[in-house]
UniProtKB/TrEMBL annotation:
EC number: 2.5.1.18
UniProt source species: Arabis nemorensis
Keywords recorded for this protein, A-Z: Cytoplasm, Detoxification, Transferase
Family: Belongs to the GST superfamily. Tau family.
Protein name: Glutathione S-transferase
Subcellular location: Cytoplasm, Cytosol
Keyword Aminoacyl-tRNA synthetase: no
SUPFAM superfamilies documented for this protein: GST C-terminal domain-like (SSF47616), Thioredoxin-like (SSF52833)
InterPro entries given in the database record: Glutathione-S-Trfase_C-like, Glutathione-S-Trfase_C_sf, Glutathione_S-Trfase, Glutathione_S-Trfase_N, GST_C_Tau, Omega/Tau-like, Thioredoxin-like_sf
PROSITE patterns in the record: GST_CTER, GST_NTER
Organism phylogeny: Eukaryota, Viridiplantae, Streptophyta, Embryophyta, Tracheophyta
Span of domain GST C-terminal: 91-215
UniProt-listed PANTHER family: GLUTATHIONE S-TRANSFERASE U3, GLUTATHIONE S-TRANSFERASE, GST, SUPERFAMILY, GST DOMAIN CONTAINING
Reaction it catalyzes: RX + glutathione = an S-substituted glutathione + a halide anion + H(+)
Length: 222
């Protein structure tokens, strides 16, 4: 099916975890789409400002004229529109908990406080590891958060933690998720990397670390 027939457009940014997860879902579902990359650190395009005038953020998803911001809502919309390879759990409790953990990872400011502050203190590293311990317990004994195959929570946590924040922490010389301390999460990261749809969507490691270095410097001087 050609992109034109489906009429799907994603306005994203290569280093944005919120955009990366949307691409993972589209690739898992096999939905063709047109992609527009925003360099929002330099300037926000008129297209972005027109499509997301409230938050002015990527990603923005456009399907047959429907305009949708906010990555969690976009993932849910994609899941309900293209029902093959479901990403959200069917069970109401599992679905609510997937949303709970996704919100925790995206909205718990302490996950990002080290990168934002730009300076490493042992106390801040320990505080971040305390949060990561909750995820280590949650993934225990499972291949993916969604159990056997990648799902909504894997896309949210994966795009944010190993394929974004870890690179920011690395750029500051911090090994935040050492295998000895977090064996289950490390197994899960390996499982994610084995998936082509994940490899295709995550930023190039070295380029990303350089980018995160710039972000950290920018935050420091802000
Ligand atoms: N809650 C939003 C967050 C989106 C977001 O923060 N996007 C960042 C890129 S990683 C952005 O566009 N930032 C531009 C800005 O803050 O002005 C989502 O889940 O989509």
């Amino acid at each position: 099916m050609a992109a034109k027939e489906e009429d799907v457009k994603l306005i994203g940014s290569w280093a944005s975890p919120f955009s990366r997860r949307v691409e993972m879902a589209l690739k898992l579902k096999g939905v063709p789409y047109d992609y527009v990359d925003e360099d929002y650190l330099v300037a926000k395009s008129p297209l972005l400002l027109q499509l997301n005038p409230i938050y002015k953020k990527v990603p923005v998803f456009v399907h047959k004229g429907n305009i949708l911001p906010e990555s969690h809502l976009i993932l849910e919309y994609i899941d309900q529109t293209w029902t093959n390879n479901p990403i959200l759990p069917r069970d109401p409790y599992d679905k609510a908990m997937a949303r709970f953990w996704a919100k925790f990872v995206d909205e718990q400011a302490r996950f990002r406080s080290l990168v934002k502050a730009g300076n490493r203190t042992e106390a801040a590293i320990e505080e971040t590891r305390e949060l990561i311990t909750f995820l280590e317990k949650e993934i225990m004994g499972k291949k993916f958060f969604a159990r056997e195959t990648i799902g909504f929570l894997d896309m949210v946590v994966g795009s944010m933690i190993p394929f974004c924040l870890v690179r920011g922490w690395e750029s500051m010389g911090i090994d935040m998720i050492p295998e000895k301390k977090f064996p289950e999460l490390n197994k899960w990261i390996k499982n994610l990397k084995e998936l082509e749809i994940v490899r295709e969507c995550i930023p190039h490691r070295e380029k990303h670390i350089e980018h995160m270095k710039k972000i950290v410097e920018r935050m420091k001087s802000a």
